[in-house]
Amino acid sequence: MKLLTLNTHSLSEKNESEKLQTIANFILKNDIDVIALQEVNQTMDKKAVAAPTTYVGSDTLKEDNFALFLSHLLGNTYQWNWIGVKVGYDRFDEGVAIFTKHRILESENTRLTHTDDYSYWKKRNALGVHIDNGKQDFWVYTAHLGWWNDDEEPFIDQWQVLNKQAQKSSLVYLAGDFNAPDELKDQSYDKVRADGWYDTRDLSAFVRGRYSAEGKIDGWEKSMQMRIDYIFINRAEKVKTHKVVFDGHEEDVVSDHYGIYMEDEQ
Predict the structure, then answer these.
(1) 238, 237, 236, 257: which is closest to 246 by C-alpha?
(2) How far is it, in rounded angstroms, from Cα 249 to Cα 231?
(3) Domain count for the chain
(4) End-to-end CA distance of the chain, in Å?
(5) CATH number for the domain that contains residue 48
(6) Is residue 209 situated within a structural domain?
(7) What angle do CA 133, 35, 262 make, to 5 degrees?
(8) Residues 124 and 145 sit within 8 Å (Cβ to Cβ)
(9) What does the DSSP assignment read for 220-240?
(10) Is residue 23 in a domain?
């Protein structure tokens, strides 16, 4: 099974259409099974449009929805869901999305924060989809979590909600922007690991790259190199490949985050 996660920083990038095409080309070239995306935006005051048949969600799509554009570039061959989570930068419906070339059995929209105020920038939700690939069923969650030391919406509270929601009897992947540098001991990353989740980078036979963000990004203005985007799994499965992608080496940079690509033996 091939899985890609990426914080897209969408509708905020220069040369947006070229970067969107780069993402689509990578997905199609590598025949990726599941794509988990964060900061998937649409402009709030744009016109609402009819959803394609591949969309399994219920949230209203606007004409510049980034996931909708991606769906078209993928030839409308992937089923997908998108949820709006909060107002971003005073003009976006900022959300998360999951695409899969397999069948989505069901979806979950889970609020992770104490606040349910859509206009508040600290609001967080996770999207989970239950997927059947013809051989087995599994769950994938995509989330964009907050910071460990936030005084209002700390990571630990958000994580406890997500961890509880993701306790399934089947295989589960957690993918996304966790805002959890692994070098900060006894904080977010260590908590996820202590709760029984495996870092697929540690399980992989082949690893390329480490950091998923470099330079100044929102919330980490003083940081330069960080590993904050992950794919976790609830079992110690055999992983073939774990790579940092869209980092300017084999693929062009498409966001203020790099992507994480993983292939396991499922």
Answers:
(1) 257
(2) 21
(3) 1
(4) 5
(5) 3.60.10.10
(6) yes
(7) 85
(8) yes
(9) -TT--EE--EEEEESS---EE
(10) yes
Torsion of CA 42, 44, 46, 50, to 10 degrees: 70
Question: 137: which residues sit within 8 A by CB, 6+ positions away?
Answer: 105, 130, 131, 170
Q: How long is the chain? A: 266
Longest dimension (CA), the chain: 47
Question: In whole angstroms, what is the distance from residue 79 CA to residue 85 CA?
Answer: 20
Q: Are 112 and 124 in contact (CB under 8 A)?
A: yes
Residue 83's domain comprises: 2-101+175-264
For range 187-208, the mean pLDDT: 98
Taking alpha carbons only, the member of 88, 101, 90 closest to residue 27 is 101
pLDDT computed for residue 108 by the predictor: 98
Residue 169 domain-assigned?
no
125 pLDDT higher than 90: yes
Read off the pLDDT band of 217 (50, 70, 90): confident
Name the packing angle between helices 66-73 and 16-30 (round to 10°). 50
71 and 80 Cβ atoms separated by less than 8 Å: yes
Residue 192 located in a structural domain: yes
3-state helix, strand, coil in the chain (%, to 5): 15, 40, 45
Burial of 202 (0-12, 13-18, 19+ CB in 10 A): exposed
Q: Which string of DSSP letters, residue by residue, matches 137-150? A: EEEEEEEE---TT-
